[in-house]
Amino acid sequence: MILQSWRLFGVSVIIIIYICSVLLFSINSSPRSNQKNERIERFSEFANFHNSRFRGFTSKANIRWCNGLKYLKTNVPNNMITTVSALSTNKVATTEDTKDNAAYRIPGLTALASFPGSGNTWLRYLLQQATGILTGSVYKDYGLLKTGFPAENVRNSSVLLVKTHEFGPKAWDPFTKAILLVRDPEKAILAEFNRQSGGHIGFASPDRYKRTKGKYWQKFVLKNLKMWEATNLSWARDFSGNIKVVFYEDLVGNLEGTLRGILNFLEFPINEELFSCTLIRREGVFRRKKRFLNFDPFTISMRSMIKQKKLEVYKYLENLK
Question: Which CATH superfamily is domain 48-318 in?
Answer without folding.
Answer: P-loop containing nucleotide triphosphate hydrolases (3.40.50.300)
